[in-house]
Amino acid sequence: MTILVEKPEVVAKVEDQNETSDLVLDGGFVVSKDVAGNDGCVKPEALVSNNEFITPEINAFGQTFREYNAESERQKGVEEFYRLNHIHQTYDFVKKMREEYRKLNRVEMSIWECCELLNEVVDDSDPDLDEPQIEHLLQTAEAIRKDYPDEDWLHLTALIHDLGKVLLLPSFGGLPQWAVVGDTHPVGCPFDGSIVHHKYFKDNPDYNNAKYNSSKYGIYAHGIGLENVLMSWGHDDYMYLVAKENGTTLPQAGLFIIRYHSFYPLHKCGVYKHLMNKEDEDNLKWLKIFNKYDLYSKSKVRLDVEKVKPYYLSLIEKYFPAKLKW
Ligand SMILES: [Fe+2]
Ligand SMILES: [Fe+2]
Hints:
Subcellular location: Cytoplasm
Bound molecules: fe (ii) ion
EC number: 1.13.99.1
Number of strands: 4
Largest sheet: 2 strands, antiparallel
Number of helices: 12
Main location: cytoplasm
Family: Belongs to the myo-inositol oxygenase family.
Distance between the termini: 40 Å
Strand content: under 5%
Structural class: mainly alpha
Strand order of the largest sheet: 1-2
Number of domains: 1
Helix content: 25-40%
Pathway: Polyol metabolism; myo-inositol degradation into D-glucuronate; D-glucuronate from myo-inositol: step 1/1
Oligomer: single chain
């Protein structure tokens, strides 16, 4: 199976990839240097665990996963999505959205109520998924639960990781798809060539702003920590803010997964590592484990929601207040 990624216009710095030795994930499997593709990105099949979770070859549309260049109507929609995303996600836009949405003054509801609400949402940016979101949430959570039965925080993290997609709904401001879903990347520094459909950044006002492009760090510094880096605005950062501001007791790794699960340039291609600190590196191991379930559990397997619901309600009670501000 191959994953085609838009050919980078700018070749990203290679030193970070070269300096990494084999990567050992907490699940006990090893990703060696030679599983990286021509674009320098790790091939998803290399992240297949050694235990029961078997990754399917194709998605619900009969294509390999994250096949952004395949010719189909849906692919054209995905490309148009990234064109808009890359043009409009500027540093100033992200700052404004973050300030606005961290007020959490829109809705009050429980985590489970939000899971049900998310059923009304379909993600245009995703070439693999054409099912109600709650199925994807439970498929991901149940697949992880099977392989990591003792990490209950990871099961709950999987269940809630996409809840921020409610930003698409009118009561949350009805944001356009390009401001909610899709891969994320840092703003305030150069747009790395490995970002999918990179060519569209040339129409982003930040692309030619010297302040953000004079070095690979932009406005940031070496090892500054991702916490101090602004990411393109979307459901990841929003759900992170919701969880944190409502006082969740999820461990840091859970919050990191929620906040960066769409940051494919980092967890698939290994770029932007120069902005990470030690804590980010530890958390990234969990994110890589999570990601293979997030990606490959988008299959046509149906789940009995009522059967698994009591387990997830007990986790919600353990890690969250009964009602959250959104
Ligand atoms: Fe997501
Ligand atoms: Fe997801």
